[in-house]
Each structure stands twice: as structure tokens, then as C-alpha cells.
């Protein structure tokens, strides 16, 4: 049973930083992309960043490029999202997700962690 558990959300002032963690368990993720998504109130869920577990290729949404960094620690089976220069529009519930490299659909999702950025 795959489990993704996010942590690290909270309240921060604009310009501040947070680091989200996603602890993954239940299988080996060597053939997976791990992604971060977010959903703000009244909006659709949107892609934030993704990383390939094996070769560390990363991709970012234009809205977070240069401010957010996705990484993973194989030994800890954990994916991170370092968020710097936070803006009020980054306020959302952030979700960790996983998909096989051979598909486009994310099959596994965490429960989400709230990030609130005050102005």
C-alpha cells in the first residue's frame, strides 16, 4: 500500500520560506516521478513541480521557477519542496503525488498540507 505523507506547512509572512516534506512508503519509487501540486480556495488543483526519482530531472511551473526547489533523498524515501520568497498567492493546500514514468496520470496522492502566506 503506497502512502505519501506531507508535512511542513504553516503560516509565514510574505518573503519568507518553508520546506515541505513528503515521506513515501509502500514500494520502491525508482520508476516514478514525484510531484507537488497545490489547490487554492475556489481554484482548480495546479502543478507546482516534479522530480524523477532515478535521474533527478526536475520541472517547475512558471509561477514558482527560481523560488521553489524540489529535491529527494533516496535514503529517507522523502521528497522535499523548498519554497523561498513566498507570496500571498502561494497560499494553498499542497499535495504530494506519484506516477510511473510511463504514464501521465498521478495515481498516488497525499492528504495535503496547508500553506498560508500573509501579506
Molecular structure report:
With 119 residues, the protein is mainly beta. The chain contains no helices and 11 strands. Strands 2, 4, 5, 6, 9, 10 and 11 form a 7-stranded mixed beta sheet that branches. Strands 1-3-8-7 form a 4-stranded antiparallel beta sheet, with no helix packed on it. Strand 9 (92-100) and strand 10 (108-109) form a beta hairpin.
Which keywords apply here?
0% helix; 7-stranded mixed beta sheet; 119 residues
Task: Give the SSE layout.
Blueprint: E1 3-7, E2 10-13, E3 18-25, E4 32-39, E5 46-52, E6 58-60, E7 68-73, E8 78-83, E9 92-100, E10 108-109, E11 113-118
Parallel strand pairs: 2-11
Antiparallel strand pairs: 1-3, 3-8, 4-5, 4-9, 5-6, 7-8, 9-10, 9-11
Number of helices: 0
Strand percent estimate: over 45%
Q: Biggest sheet, open or closed, and with what strands and sense?
A: 7 strands, mixed
Shape: globular
Give the rounded overall mean pLDDT.
95
Report, as a whole number of angstroms, the end-to-end distance: 40 Å
Quick rundown:
This protein has strands at residues 3-7, 10-13, 18-25, 32-39, 46-52, 58-60, 68-73, 78-83, 92-100, 108-109, 113-118. The chain is an all-beta fold and 119 residues long.
